[in-house]
């Protein structure tokens, strides 16, 4: 069922939330039809919600879900709308629950080192307040200024400094979660909000993370805090070839330096793209073919000692240190790189506006070189098939402090305005091929964004095996009418007796 103006459901929503917090205007709806992931412009209207609600409390979210459950209306949670797997995009109309008004800091507990916040707040704003207390919430994605805590939970996000502090799933201790029926539960360890380890019962916190809004809505979260680091060191090194850079990043990640927060490997395609089309990039001599950067955080004396060790390792591998200015500048720009207007090139070299697709598989260190070659081959095929695609190169980011696996990213520029149906079909097929390469190399389709997009989603049952059947059973048990984000993750298969609509 969808909702239309004048419908008693709309009146009921206005009674629950107040007139101003039920948005029905075309601009409000259009603003929530998409996320930054490229999609054919001529098809945007297919993804319009019927209306948007902006609740101000957990109780209001619960009332909205109770109503939607009773009337079988689709509901899509939305926070910052920066997700790159279409999670916050409504595929069946219905209600978008935009949680941005849940942005209060409810408590900062200096002794237990936690804070409790509404899930509509972002880490940038939160850290402005925490820094007055000498504290940091270190969930640090490239989308740091614009993604919000609820979206980080909904995607189970990945942090650029996760090798030191952990990722979203490690940093969110517990949260209030509204189930699809409107029932409110609290998930996390222990009966309070601030326990970090418990062995009682199922580990439900993890079930209600990364579900892309298909199992309900997180409204209030308790987060783990750390001392604000006294020092940061972010050395940047240049290499004449990919293999040397690859070997070096492995050595750095495996060194066991306690302040090591992460390292990033840039391949030749990435360096060429930055050199060609990124105005923020500081030019390097033509001999530079690959780059590695690392980041260390902590007290000054420990960062100095750890930094010296990493510098020694890199030097012994033949790396050329690029100097303090470039090093600090590039790391400082980590939240900005994709916020600037983007462009790419057609095959003839013509500059055209392009949007950004970011593939984000998890790949073991030993498989990075093979995945890199296979992915660039797919990108090359795509580029030859249609002039609306451009290969922007690859990054590999350490995931944890041991260097076992990497968030492996290929960036593909897509001229979104020229994505006709044929180009879109070529893209969906390539997307499936990219995901298949990750699985063929023992990886996961997604390290951080999720795997809901057309093409990749077909392979999720293969990645999860029998676990996918468990996922279907959980979905059906918790959301009997399939109201939460219907159409995502092939979860319609949980309802063989329905046609897919709630
Ligand atoms: C420039 C750029 C850089 C990025 N860099 C990174 C990065 O380094 N690391 C990374 O992990 N991601 C990155 N991303 C992707 C994106 O920022 C993350 O996926 C982020 O976690 C999404 O947060 P959001 O608030 O924008 O959520 P949204 O896009 O609004 O929602 C994401 C998903 O969560 C669901 N959801 C939203 N709110 C809730 C809630 N309260 N309860 C339950 N489910 C909810 C939505 O339905 C949707 O399925 C980047 C994106 C961009 C545009």
UniProtKB/TrEMBL annotation:
Which cofactor(s) are needed, names only? FAD
Query: What Pfam families does the annotation carry?
Result: FAD-oxidase_C, FAD_binding_4
Q: FAD-binding PCMH-type domain: which residues?
A: 45-228
Name the domain of life this protein comes from: Bacteria
- Could you tell me the keywords of this UniProt record? FAD, Flavoprotein, Oxidoreductase, Transit peptide
GO terms, molecular function: D-lactate dehydrogenase (cytochrome) activity; D-lactate dehydrogenase (NAD+) activity; FAD binding
Which Enzyme Commission number(s) are listed? 1.1.2.4
What is one Gene Ontology biological process annotated in the Swiss-Prot or TrEMBL record? lactate catabolic process
Is Oxidoreductase found in the keyword set?
A: yes
Indicate yes or no for the key word RNA-binding: no
Belongs to which family? Answer: Belongs to the FAD-binding oxidoreductase/transferase type 4 family.
Its name, as the record gives it, is D-lactate dehydrogenase (cytochrome)
List the lineage, top down: Bacteria, Bacillati, Actinomycetota, Actinomycetes, Streptosporangiales
């Amino acid at each position: 069922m969808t909702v239309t103006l004048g419908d008693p459901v709309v009146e009921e929503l206005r009674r629950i939330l107040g007139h101003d917090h039920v948005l029905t205007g075309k601009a409000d709806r259009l603003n929530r039809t998409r996320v930054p992931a490229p999609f054919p412009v001529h098809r945007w209207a297919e993804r319009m919600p019927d209306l948007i609600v902006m609740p101000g409390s957990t109780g209001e979210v619960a009332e909205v879900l109770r109503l939607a459950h009773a009337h079988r209306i689709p509901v899509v949670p939305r926070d910052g709308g920066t997700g790159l797997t279409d999670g916050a995009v409504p595929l069946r109309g219905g209600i978008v629950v935009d949680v941005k008004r849940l942005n209060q800091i409810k408590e900062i507990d200096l002794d237990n080192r936690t804070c409790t916040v509404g899930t509509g707040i972002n880490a940038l704003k939160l850290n402005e307040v925490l820094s007055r207390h000498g504290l940091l919430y270190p969930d640090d994605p490239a989308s740091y200024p614009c993604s919000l805590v609820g979206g980080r939970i909904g995607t189970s996000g990945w942090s650029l400094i996760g090798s030191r502090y952990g990722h979203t799933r490690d940093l969110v201790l517990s949260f209030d979660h509204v189930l699809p029926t409107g029932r409110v539960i609290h998930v996390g360890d222990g009966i309070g909000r601030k326990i970090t380890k418990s062995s009682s019962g199922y580990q439900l916190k993890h079930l209600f993370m990364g579900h892309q809004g298909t199992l309900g809505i997180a409204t209030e979260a308790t987060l783990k805090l750390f001392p604000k680091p006294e020092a940061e060191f972010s050395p940047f090194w240049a290499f004449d070839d990919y293999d040397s850079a690859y070997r070096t990043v492995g050595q750095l990640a495996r060194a066991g330096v306690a302040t090591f927060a992460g390292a990033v490997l840039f391949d030749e395609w990435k360096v060429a793209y930055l050199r060609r089309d990124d105005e923020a990039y500081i030019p390097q001599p033509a001999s530079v073919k690959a780059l590695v950067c690392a980041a260390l955080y902590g007290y000054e004396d420990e960062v100095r000692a750890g930094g010296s060790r990493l510098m020694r390792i890199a030097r012994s591998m033949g790396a050329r240190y690029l100097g303090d200015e470039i090093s600090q500048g590039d790391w400082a720009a980590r939240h900005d790189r994709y916020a600037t207007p983007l462009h790419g090139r057609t095959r003839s070299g013509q500059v055209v506006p392009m949007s950004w697709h970011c593939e984000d598989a998890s790949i073991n260190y030993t498989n990075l070189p093979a995945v890199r070659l296979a992915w660039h081959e797919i990108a090359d095929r795509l580029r030859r098939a249609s002039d609306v695609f451009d290969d922007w190169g690859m990054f590999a980011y350490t995931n944890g402090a041991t260097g076992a696996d990497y968030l492996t990213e290929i960036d593909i520029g897509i001229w979104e305005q020229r994505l006709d149906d044929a180009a879109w079909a070529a893209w969906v097929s390539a997307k499936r091929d990219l995901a298949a390469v990750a699985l063929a190399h023992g990886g996961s389709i997604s390290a951080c964004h999720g795997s809901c997009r057309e093409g990749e989603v077909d392979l999720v049952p293969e990645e999860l095996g029998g676990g996918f059947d468990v996922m279907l059973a959980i979905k059906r048990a918790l959301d009997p009418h399939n109201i939460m984000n219907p159409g995502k993750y092939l979860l319609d298969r949980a309802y063989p007796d329905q046609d897919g609509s709630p």
